[in-house]
Amino acid sequence: MSGEQAKLNRKDFVSDQDVRWCPGCGDYAILAQVQRVMPELNIPRENIVFVSGIGCSSRFPYYMNTYGFHSIHGRATAIASGLKLARPELSVWVVTGDGDGLSIGGNHLIHLLRRNLDINVLLFNNEIYGLTKGQYSPTSRMGQITKSSPLGVADHPFDTVSLALGADATFVARTVDTETQHLQSMLTRAVEHKGTSFIEILQNCPIFNDGAFEEVSGKGSRIQNQLVLEHGQPLLFGPEDARMGVALGKDMSPQVVNMESTPEEQVLLHDETNEALGFFLSRLERPEFPVPLGVIRAMDRPIYEKEVAAQAKRALSEMGQPDFNKLFCGGDTWTVE
Amino acid sequence: MAEVPSETTVREKPVEQVDTVVIRFAGDSGDGMQLTGTQFTNESAIAGNDIATLPDYPAEIRAPAGTLAGVSGFQVNFSEGRVFTPGDRPDVLVVMNPAALSVNIADLRDGGILVADSDAFTLSNIRKAGMDGDPLADASLNKRVRVFAVPLTRMTTDSIADMGLPKKTMVRCKNFFALGLCSWMFNRPIEQTLAWIGIKFAKSPALVEANTRVFKAGWNFGETTEVFVHTYEVKPAKIEPGTYTNMTGNRALALGLMAAASKAGKSMFFGSYPITPASDILHELAAHKNFDVTTFQAEDEIAAVCSAIGASFGGALGVTASSGPGIALKGEAMGLAVITELPLVIVNVQRGGPSTGLPTKTEQADLMQALYGRNGESPLAIVAPATPVECFNMAFEAVHVALKYMVPVMILSDGYLANGAQPWKIPDYDELPDISVRYWKGDLGFHPYLRNEDTLSRPWVIPGTPGFEHRIGGLEKDYNSGDISYDPANHERMTRVRAEKIERVNEDLNPLCVEGSELGELLMVGWGSTYGALAQATEELNAEGLATGHLHLRWLNPLPVEELKRIFARYKTIVVPELNMGQLVRILRERLLVDAIPVSRVQGQPFKVGELKARVKAIVEEGR
């Protein structure tokens, strides 16, 4: 086939299925950005596979005109791992949520991250269970009133990014459903990264947890609360006339400093390859600190499926071409005449 | 130092001909009894005998030394005739300590031979085994069996005393003394064992020398001592010509799966989580990565099966293996493979349950789990090999069915088949049949649930195929479009199609074969690893004048109901012996409305032929 294939556009990635998320759901915005980015990646459509588990976000594959597998609760990461090992040339995407990915599927997620298969994971975090109609999730905040926590959530929540970093993910980013440009750039970075790319997308559930991320995404408050990360750039946030920075305090704890009275050298520089800094950023908690958005960590580590393929190659060179008759006679044999 | 024995050594003691011998090696789990038993088995196989083995070891890796909990045993039956089972009761029992004697002595047949390491029968060891006086000196025991108290530890250390090895290392060689002695006693060929010692301990020349010397010392002790008056010989069995090797069920499964994947032109993906007694399948496959086999040790049982499903979705042959507890965890994912109609092979090497149960003991209690252990109407094809060697063929058939019908297939093995060994007539790979895989060749109007008219299977169009991008998943799909459907009538139609696909597997299966009497008083119906005991019992019952047939089912889903009805009609009594509380018998009663009678045993051990016969005869008597 010639390489002169007509360039695909967004519509080529829209399936013939009716999208059935609730009106106003943040998932619509994410779907639109993914469909917009896909044609730019120059990956043949037939080589793209979306795998999901169960939950609102997990309907995603049905709406993408690519190969797709809507599987069972929490297991998309495990299914995607088998698929990627069997077919390393495919572009494999996992779409999951805070319940699917961090609760029932938490085990598989951390193991995917540590193995570092070249899979892109989009975790839609809305801090609530949507499909089961409004119970608290592992990222719900303490005290939150939900259907299953009428007296408030008693569980301490996971910080998604800290968890991913703790599992030794090689690429961790955070973005917001409504920040379309930023979301697109994170998707592109995820594809460029070789190894597991993990993106937490803060996503609004208008039905069961509306406004959970209002400080980060609201028109009036976003500028105050978004710490947009760029590699090599200082950690600055806030409006132009009231710039703030994040510095390291004397006790090694993070500190917000006012840039009017602070020299820029005192502000930390972002470094995607600095593991300690990544963890430091992931521990910045609202409302005292802004929410870091962008690539928190991007580093190289051997890719699992490549290691597996290298072993197979080594086995071939050391043990030779497969010879079943030789294999069958591998142990002690004797002949009956 | 003792003289070197060889094939040409002139035997000075008389040789007694016997047709069948059952020998059991028993000792502490650190005494190397499994190794001794396995190597003795290999010698017997090379001698041309038919053989069957039963390793029986504790779940603890190292229970406290000398205790009853730590006793490990290995039994082998070798014969010049056909061998169906490892034997009910040993003719020869070799015990390395009082605990091993205590656990095993009741099984030794009257008049049998007891060889005991007398050095291990110290007062403290005897007490640890819960006995009072020295059992070797017990008058009633000496009356019942022939006791040979051999200072095995001392002779072991004496034979290598000049090597300067630590005491502990010297003592650990004593299993080779026992092996040497037994090899002498039964006229086993020993060249291969000597060569094997050289390979096994290649990393330590000192151990090669020590074990070789101890082995020979054991052999020479038999030859020179006054204790033993003669040796025994078991002539080679009349075995079909060919080249043979010793094969365990787990290894046969691994090789069968690999060969089938290769014959289907498929990469094999094996997702697994270690569990006794299935882990050896993972070990075997992991050693053959040059055969287009990927092994993935997943983080848990669920990820193991899910990764295999993902690989199948990608076009590989996805396989997973576990034992009952792991299969329970895989249940939901197996349902996903059922509804997405992807090929998948699931191996269940059954063990005693429920829960953790008896990890190292055998049982057949997962048939109901295999048939019904998932939510919803969720049928799988199920096949159960009858012998260790048959695991190869059944794995091959399972792959064929999974790929042809796009269904999950479960192979029900068990701990007894998994670890039991049998001579395997090595097949010629080139003569094994090809497994054809059908691909979608249509063009217009594609959807992922379009069905092949013959098999009702849906097309396996794999990612990477341009123009056929599609989505599958665990939600019910519309028969006509493959879209998500909640339509009531459609759900019933799809449910029936999934069941009908399994029924159609019947068309691929060989006709049932009854062994023993073609009609008469009694039909024993069995499945899985009880084959040997049932076959032996059938032979003996017929010889005793009770017209007995033996039907051993391989495929348990689907069942050829009409064919079964015709066969059952030829017998007065239908008995179903199983190592569970009666599972197949319930299926047969339900499907055939037949008054089949269960014979249950749930002791973590195979049937004993004598016991089985007695129970079956009592049922026949009662019916008369």
The outline of chain A comes out as: globular
State which percent range the strand residues of chain B make up: 15-25%
Q: How far do the termini of chain A sit from each other?
A: 57 Å
Spatial order of the strands in the main sheet of chain B? 11-10-12-13-15-14-21
Structural class of chain A: alpha/beta
Largest sheet of chain B: 7 strands, mixed
Could you tell me the number of beta strands of chain A? 12
| Share of β-strand residues of chain A | 15-25%
Reading the helices and strands of chain A in chain order gives HEHEHEHHEHEHEHHEEEEHEHHE
Helical percent range of chain A? Answer: 25-40%
Detail the poorly predicted runs of chain B. Answer: none
**SS summary, helix count of chain A:** 12
* Sequence of strands across the biggest β-sheet of chain A: 2-1-3-4-6-5-11-7
The coarse overall form of chain B would be globular
Identify low-pLDDT runs of chain A: none
Would you tell me the overall average pLDDT of chain B?
94
Let me know the largest β-sheet of chain A.
8 strands, mixed
Number of helices of chain B: 21
What is the gyration radius of chain B calculated from CA atoms? 27 Å
Distance between the termini of chain B: 67 Å
Q: Can you give a write-up of this model?
A:
Chain A has helices spanning 26-37, 60-63, 76-86, 98-104, 106-115, 160-166, 180-192, 214-217, 222-225, 275-282, 304-319, 324-328, and strands at 48-52, 67-70, 91-97, 119-125, 171-176, 197-202, 226-228, 236-237, 244-248, 254-258, 291-298, 333-336. Chain A has 337 residues and is α/β, with parallel strands linked by helices. The longest helix of chain A is centred in the C-terminal third of the chain and has 16 residues, at 304-319. In chain A, 46% of the residues are buried. The model of chain A has no long low-confidence stretch (mean pLDDT 96). In chain B, strands 11-10-12-13-15-14-21 form a seven-stranded mixed sheet, with helices on both faces. In chain B, strands 3-4-2-5-6-7 form a six-stranded mixed sheet, with helices on both faces. Chain B has a five-stranded mixed sheet with strand order 18-20-19-22-23, with helices on one face. Helices cover 37% and strands 20% of the residues of chain B. By secondary structure, chain B is α/β, with parallel strands linked by helices. Chains A and B meet through strand 2, helix 3, helix 5, helix 11 and helix 12 of A and helix 1, strand 9, helix 10, helix 12 and helix 13 of B.
